[in-house]
Amino acid sequence: MSEDLRLIHCQGAALDPYLDALGQLRITVFREFPYLYDGSLEYERDYLRTYAAAEQSLVVLVLRGSDVVGATTCIPMTAEGPEFQEAFVRAGYDLSQICYFGESILLPELRGRGLGKEFFRRREAHARELGAQITTFCAVDRPEDHPQRPADYRPLSGLWQQQGYERHPELQCILNWKENHESEESPKTLTFWLKKRQDS
Ligand SMILES: CC(C)(COP(=O)(O)OP(=O)(O)OC[C@H]1O[C@@H](n2cnc3c(N)ncnc32)[C@H](O)[C@@H]1OP(=O)(O)O)[C@@H](O)C(=O)NCCC(=O)NCCS
Question: What is the C-alpha to C-alpha distance for residues 194 and 171, in angstroms, rounded to an integer?
């Protein structure tokens, strides 16, 4: 890792001083395909409050100087909202065994140097400390021929498979956000990827 980057861990209320910087980074990174998110800090504050309010959440921030240039988040599934829990409840999972990974985001110029894998290592270590048997995250479903897919887009599915995650098409959630070409929020379908703990 470059010497001017620092990774710090925030749990619960320790995230408070970074909430707006993290929200702004989410807006910047998720504006790109495949999320196309036309975000607002107001929505971000509301979304991130769940992490700041949960003592057992973990947010890893990548700092360059005092700027937040990357982040990854995780939280016990029991502390997440019903929109994330529902598919697992319906399928008969024990929510107390699941750690949910919220996002991994990095400014584009910092990608491809191993931080994404480091994000998985740190979140999986946290999930082990929580005693979770399953780690999971979800990703938005987009068709191959989506009109806004850049010609040089590199899907992250290879990275996720390499990290031991498997896509579960039977586990989906619907989240609402406003895309860059939309005048208001609309529902998007996301599919969960899961990994079962190997060392138990
Ligand atoms: C997810 C993300 C943080 C990964 O970070 P990263 O530091 O590039 O990850 P790593 O360097 O550890 O590994 C990247 C792997 O994915 C591949 N990859 C896919 N797209 C890539 C891209 N745009 N840039 C660099 N690597 C990419 C690389 O080949 C690499 O695999 P390899 O080591 O086997 O060659 C970063 O790509 C990102 O911010 N993406 C946009 C936000 C997003 O979609 N997040 C995931 C959903 S929340």
Answer: 10
